Amino acid sequence: MHPTLADDLHRLPELLQSARDFAAREMNGLDDRPVAHLDKAPAPGHVPAEGAGAEGALARFAERWAPGFSGSAGPRYLGFVTGGATPASLTGDWLTSVYDQNVSGSGGSSATALERETLGWLRELFGLSEAHSGAFVSGATVSNTVGLAIAREWLGERRGVSVSRQGAGALGPVDVLSGSPHSSVAKALSVLGIGRDRLRPVPVLSGNREAVDVERLAAALDALDGHPAVVVANAGTVNTVDFDDLRAIAALRERYDFWLHVDAAFGGFAALSPSYAHLVEGLDAADSVCVDLHKWLNVPYDAAVQFTRRQDLQVQVFHNASPYLGLPGGDPDFLHLTPENSRRLRALPAWFSLTAYGREGHREIVERNVALARRLGERIAQEVPGLRLLAPVRLNVVCFTLADEPSEERVHALAHAVAASGEAFVTPTFYAGTHALRAAFSNWRTSEADTDRVFESLRRHCADLRR
């Protein structure tokens, strides 16, 4: 064994303690460190000829790279939809690396059973049926891709072909209908060989909505003359967290033949709150569902789940035919359900967080985040003449813009100024024909004091922009 590696092995408890102490200092300083770093990153170097050992590597990282990392795990990072890592989920994530389980199959470890238990808990939280089976994947993009891959196989079943064997060309043109699809849906269609151009936009409801007009969806399905299609419904849109009427959409299957995929990446967590659970009524009727866990469940990147009613078709798409891997049957191993063969035990951080805080703890996070989003929205609407809301705060996202001259340059300049201050981070968007900003609340740490700091930063830099 290389002497440096041997020395690290001998000193492993001491090295882990050093890493623990460094991590604790970084976590304890989250509230005070800049939320974003816009400075130029260090220039890339060459691979070291002689290793510095684990302790030396930690020292070099702390000096060279750590200062430039964002505070995305902290309470005022409101860009995209970014959760943090609860203490329990962080514990689970560290242990994931300690045990280093490859959750591809069930042989020789109980890790697969833990993933199945965690999936069962999540299925219960989201109000899905026993008919829905699932698997952990890396994020919403892969979850949507898996769901639409199963939908593609279902279309082949309807048309008497096996896409997984014969290829997408055997299927012919596919119609995918949606009101306000996330960009990852088009990406998934590209990956699957269906094609981005097969995504057919359906008009949304009037009155500043992003939810699909179900009557217009019915008309679009009717125009297909009985040909099966895929409908992508939304449980929480990116800009305004609008929800499609899932029950009404599902009811259309009495007249039309379509696969219902629901993108509930973060909006699915509305199910945890009695005040907002009505928004996801009908989710259990979906043929496939996407939920992203490193958003509102607040587990570390990367973690998401996918659920489907047609595991048999999922196996047709993803099974790995090799003698040493075994054949899918009964409860198929996860390597037969996802694009990956080798799989990190992503379920463990979720298991830890659900065990530690339960349904009620995670409900509190959801309801507090919603209350804080509304607090920010109300203050923007009432106290800053230079800003205006573009949509009501329906759940956990505040969508707003400049009251005067909301050009791309000026809106982006405000976002940059806020980020450069280190006080907060929000992301630009384009909604209702207007350049805008989004503040998305999904971090378990965020408090009223944090929200007020974000507001003051926005007000101050908006005033500077108007001078």
Write the topology of this structure:
Layout: H1 3-10, H2 12-28, H3 53-64, H4 87-99, H5 111-125, E1 133-137, H6 140-159, H7 163-166, E2 176-178, H8 183-191, E3 199-201, H9 214-222, E4 229-234, H10 246-251, E5 258-263, E6 288-292, H11 293-296, E7 304-308, H12 311-318, H13 347-383, E8 387-389, E9 397-402, H14 408-421, E10 427-431, E11 434-440, H15 448-466
Parallel strand pairs: 2-3, 2-4, 4-5, 5-6
Antiparallel strand pairs: 1-7, 6-7, 8-9, 9-11, 10-11
Protein name: Aspartate aminotransferase family protein
Modified residues (N6-(pyridoxal phosphate)lysine): 295
Cofactor: pyridoxal 5'-phosphate
Q: How many helical elements?
A: 15
Per CATH, the architecture of the largest domain is 3-Layer(aba) Sandwich
> Could you spell the SSE succession in H and E letters?
HHHHHEHHEHEHEHEEHEHHEEHEEH
* DSSP strand content: 5-15%
- Principal-axis shape equals globular
| Total strand segments | 11
CATH fold annotation of the largest domain: Aspartate Aminotransferase, domain 2
What is the CATH C-level name of the largest domain?
Answer: Alpha Beta
What is the count of distinct domains? 2
Radius of gyration: 24 Å
Helical residues, percent: 40-55%
| Fourth-level CATH superfamily of the largest domain | Type I PLP-dependent aspartate aminotransferase-like (Major domain)
Oligomeric description of these chains: single chain
Q: What is the mean pLDDT?
A: 96
SS-based class: alpha/beta
Strand count, sense and barrel status of the largest sheet are: 7 strands, mixed
Q: Which stretches are poorly predicted, pLDDT < 50 over at least 5 residues?
A: none
N-end to C-end Cα span: 65 Å
Q: Strand sequence of the main sheet, in spatial order?
A: 1-7-6-5-4-2-3
Organism: Streptomyces albiflavescens
Cofactor: pyridoxal 5'-phosphate
Keywords: Aminotransferase, Decarboxylase, Lyase, Pyridoxal phosphate, Transferase
GO biological process, one term: carboxylic acid metabolic process
